[in-house]
Amino acid sequence: MKSRTLLIVFILLLLPVAMEAQCSMCRAVLTANADDSPAKGINDGIIYLMAFPYILMAGVGFAVWRSYKKRKAQD
Hints:
There is one protein chain. The protein is mainly α. The protein has one domain. 88% of the residues lie in helices and 0% in strands. It has 3 helices and no strands. The two termini are 33 Å apart.
């Protein structure tokens, strides 16, 4: 069990390095522009795309918590 946890932590530590390399074209296009408005638009889009999975997970967590609370009250 301990080795499995260490393996998962090791893999998670390597993920940011692998993900950083996938955005080179977007970065090249956005830094070549003197105007910062396209870069701000891309950053806002990323924030919006990141928000929805967190909102969905919070909703699922709330539903599980509420179900657990109802089940505890019935016992």
